[in-house]
Design goal:
This protein has 14 helices and 22 strands. By secondary structure, the chain is of the alpha+beta class.
């Protein structure tokens, strides 16, 4: 039978966390071992510090240090940049990384979000849409493009099983790598006590997309990528099916600028847009969360009446591998961001409760906190219509119907460029579901080369 180490008892007493041992005598040996492993891994001093500092507001830089991000757009006809990116792809220097640790709870979906069906006609999942883009790129450029998928403890097993069941969507299994991000315990918002999801089990949640750095290092993938000749990692989040994966024009710009990090940005919809704000602090690329930006700054306009701090963060980046390796050594120094959430858990009497108000503090690290550490960076503007409509919730502009409409609009635009008529509503939206598989065409140029101009679309259309 497992005993509780005296040193652990002392730590629990010092930090007022003895309640986690309630019901110890009724736990099985395996449950006791699991609880001890959880407790031994917790940095109680860090948790205590985070709890005591929860009321501290974000320290905003002096406003005079903050300047707008320059507006930079890329010319799609710039063959020099495009060819430079294509050459890197052909040399096998690019890997693709999908952040996919989240579950679809806000969508009313109990599985990993990447398994949500989003194809307007085919109902392909987010995972399939992204994987087929990578497969199409491999075929186009004749080179291996490793696909890295960051999971969380809640999604890892299911995600791995799903890819295996789907035969990795045609990708070589040896070029698909899963790695699991870390977790952080949540704390009671009033007392700072650890929350229990059941007797002998502490509630934890993923440590944020900033956990990518530590997880890559712990998995050994950074060394594996370097050994395989990878020099650049294209990063995005699983919930955005419009993303142009490893966009060669963007990649060519990144290379031409010798950037350590390159980011895409989108124009904010307004001063209260809930995207992170891309801006400059002392001339360095920085993101300040929308909730941390004072309204007086958020509403500032320029001489043309446009938002001064105009650039929002769609979470699309290229990281040089050297930079990732350097930042992974400093991952523990990234700050934690605090979120107040409703977390179902055991109450003080050991009864299950579903809170109606925020009862917990969750702690996450964000990948964008490494941006100011880049000595060379670049940021280019893209549009929501062509590259950013995230799937977040059941209703509204980030719901499944809205994202599917955005996909149909994108593909309808490609068809129009190819000279193919597509029915539209008075508001300009494509009136029928339209879907083009990446395996049929990765972009409008490839589609134009394949379709006859006399083709017309009268109902739902799916091309694969």
């Amino acid at each position: 039978m497992e005993d509780i180490p005296q040193s652990l008892k002392q730590r629990l007493h010092r930090y007022g966390q003895e309640h986690v041992l309630a019901g110890w005598d009724s736990l099985s040996d395996s449950e006791r071992r699991a609880l001890l492993a959880q407790l031994e891994a917790i940095d109680f001093d860090l948790l205590h510090q985070l709890f005591t500092q929860q009321g501290q507001t974000f320290h905003l830089p002096d406003p005079e240090r903050i300047t707008p991000l320059p507006r930079v757009t890329l010319d799609p006809s710039d063959l020099h940049l495009r060819r430079r990116g294509e050459e890197a792809l052909r040399r096998g220097e690019v890997a693709v990384l999908i952040v996919a640790g989240g579950q679809g709870s806000r969508l009313g979906f109990v599985l990993p979000k990447g398994m949500f069906p989003i194809g307007p006609v085919s109902q392909k999942t987010l995972f399939q849409v992204h994987a087929e883009k990578v497969l199409a790129l491999r075929r186009r450029y004749g080179a291996a493009i490793p696909l890295l998928i960051m999971t969380s403890p809640a999604t890892d097993d299911t995600t791995r099983a799903f890819f295996a069941d789907q035969r990795f969507f045609g990708l070589p299994p040896s070029d698909v790598f899963f790695f699991c991000q870390g977790t952080m315990p949540a704390l009671d918002i009033a007392t700072g006590r650890l929350l229990l999801e059941k007797p002998g089990r502490i509630f934890t949640s993923p440590d944020g997309h900033g956990g990518t750095l530590a997880a890559l290092r712990a998995s050994g993938l950074l060394h594996r990528l370097r050994d395989d000749g990878i020099r650049h990692v294209f990063y995005f989040q699983v919930d955005n099916p419009l993303v142009r994966v490893a966009d060669p024009l963007f990649l060519g710009h990144h290379l031409a600028q010798r950037a350590e990090v390159s980011s895409k940005v989108v124009a904010k919809n307004g001063p209260t847009d809930t995207l992170g704000n891309f801006l400059l602090v002392d001339g360095r690329c920085t993101i300040i969360e929308y909730s941390d930006l004072p309204e007086t700054l958020a509403r500032q306009t320029d001489a043309q009446g446009r938002l001064r701090l105009w650039a929002g963060n769609p979470a699309i980046h290229i990281f040089d591998l050297d930079f990732l390796e350097r930042m992974s050594q400093e991952a523990a120094n990234l700050p934690f961001h605090v979120a107040r959430k409703k977390v179902p858990c055991l109450d003080a009497s050991g009864q299950w409760m579903e809170p109606t108000t925020e009862n917990a503090l969750k702690f996450e690290r964000f990948i964008f906190d490494v941006l100011p550490r880049a000595e060379r960076w670049t940021a280019v503007e893209t549009t929501r219509a062509t590259e950013f409509v995230p799937l977040k919730r059941e209703t509204g502009p980030e719901s499944p119907p809205a994202v599917q409409q955005a996909l149909s609009n994108l593909f309808g635009g490609w068809l129009k460029e190819a000279g193919v008529a597509v029915p539209r509503r008075p508001d300009g939206d494509v009136a029928v579901p339209v879907e083009i598989s990446p395996l049929f065409a990765l972009d409008a140029d490839e589609l134009r080369a394949k379709l006859p101009r006399w083709l017309t679309v009268e109902g739902a259309l799916y091309l694969e």
